[in-house]
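[09:14] KT: can someone run the structure on this one? pasting the chain below
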Amino acid sequence: MTLTIADAQLKDEAGRTRILRGVNLGGSSKVPFSPDGASYRREGFFEHRAVSFVGRPFPLAEADEHFQRLAAWGLTCLRLIVTWEALEHAGPGQHDEEYLDYLVEIVRRAGEHGMLVFIDAHQDVWSRFSGGDGAPGWTFEAAGLDITKFQQTGAAIVHATHGDPFPRMIWPTNGWKLAAATMYTLFFGGDDFAPGLRVDGEPIQSYLQRHYLGALRRLAARLRVFPHVIGYDVFNEPMPGLIGNRALHRPASPLTQGERPSPFEMLLLGAGHPQAVEQWVWELRPRRVGRRTVNPGAVSAWLPGRECVWRSEGVWDLAADGQPRLLRPQHFCYVRGRFVQFTRDYWRPFCNRFAAAIREEHPGALIFVQPEYGGEGPAWGPDDAPGIVYAPHWYDLVTLFVKRYLPGLALDLTRRGPVFGIGAVERHFAQELRAHVRYGAEQMGGAPTLIGEFGIPFDLNNRTAFSSGNFGLAERAMARSFRALDDALASGTLWNYTADNSNARGDLWNDEDLSLYSADQRRDPGDINSGGRALRAAVRPYAMATAGTPLRMHFDRARRLFTYRFRHDPAVSAPSEIFVPRLQYPEGCQVSVSDGDFELDMQAQRLRYRHSDGVDEHEIRIRPA
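[09:31] RB: done, structure tokens below
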């Protein structure tokens, strides 16, 4: 299926408006399959060149089972997780051909099951070795960083080296620590901020971007033969690193949890100068609990014979008394006398560079562009690449961070304050998602919006559901997120589906557990739904294809009443299609329409509706038989 863009909507070959619902596949694709790279494992962690991601998201022998399950759940759009490390772990320019062959077969089988696929070049806080996933270990070596010293120097908090218990949702703080912040700065802005750093004579920014784009181009060249591969996500959750920072003496991280060094402190820590760093805890509100001396052993995070790149660039140095001094406090915020802004000056140009590179291999591919982590997307103009989909992430943040379902509490990041009351929270969620849709249409050149990630943790309330088998709280939390998506008439891909999720270790990465499926909940191998979690909330009717403009979509979960209204487009002759899940209507359903006629196929879980031409707006209602 080919998708195009018109009127800030995704359109199929028949001209129908498509609302896509799917999943991120999968959560454990962030770590190697062999040897087992689950983030809690320390053994072999630093042997980063001798790994394989063949088997992520699942072994080929299991592929049809998982695709059948997802299709039965109506989740037919896959944001397929692929990391740079998976493609090029062995060394610069050494692409893993076995993994590429494996991905081609996974994608081919997905198409056989009616799936649409877009590739997500996934990363979190740069790499596994800086507490997340994404880039190969050799990228640190190119910059002169020693991945074995990040724990001692406070350069990153990493599950494998920290050990258990791993602090809840601590990993995002790595984006403002030395390892990740340095690599983001070099990758996006090395030409401006570290012009003296070269790898084999090549500027570091060019070196890193050339290899990143080369790996993704290699994959695009293999996948372009599949019409159901609709596009490529540029770079998951981009972060500016140090770019734009004008207060190097003050903590930059908005996340008040664990160690919170200022940028200057983190530079000194990495260079072997112990620092007394702020310590924070976060429960329902942040609280500073004092300071702690970090790196008391004066260990360097830089490889032997290499010094801190930011010292080499004159940002700081040792004074005559041997004490560190900040020499260029505005190094990262002014370039040639002009104040720089990450999204405008670095992220947007890179997105255009990515689009051009991918389309040389896969002409016509859609390019999925995210905003800067925690910010807004780039302002897109007529000189920027066409065929853009705006793909922000959205989460119920209180549920995600606290791992409790509190129906009357949410966080408003715009006002930087709480939202109280069940009704107010639901309205706020819908408003946030509508704002994303509006931003894509108005600020990104008429781009349609697909929420690239949303979801809820299943280990709520200290994992009580795993022993009781009652996922009622998770179901309510999940339903609230899907209801907001419906209210905004937005496409979205749920985070996530992890084939090897377990109650003990979740998605095998940083103790997260957001998978819609777990083998530990699978009781009946003959039941396609067995193993699913909160399915009554996630598997719901929705308008897959509309012969016109969607106006309103609502699913009353208690009554299982689905209502859909749209305005038809006279130029479209194909029927509108609604996903009607058997899980919600095991005894069948009743359908009423405002006009026209319909065909209900419960075996295929589809309602096909042909409207009359005598009226502009149409309504479809589905209820249990």
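[09:33] KT: thanks! The chain has a mean pLDDT of 97.
[09:34] RB: yep, looked fine to me
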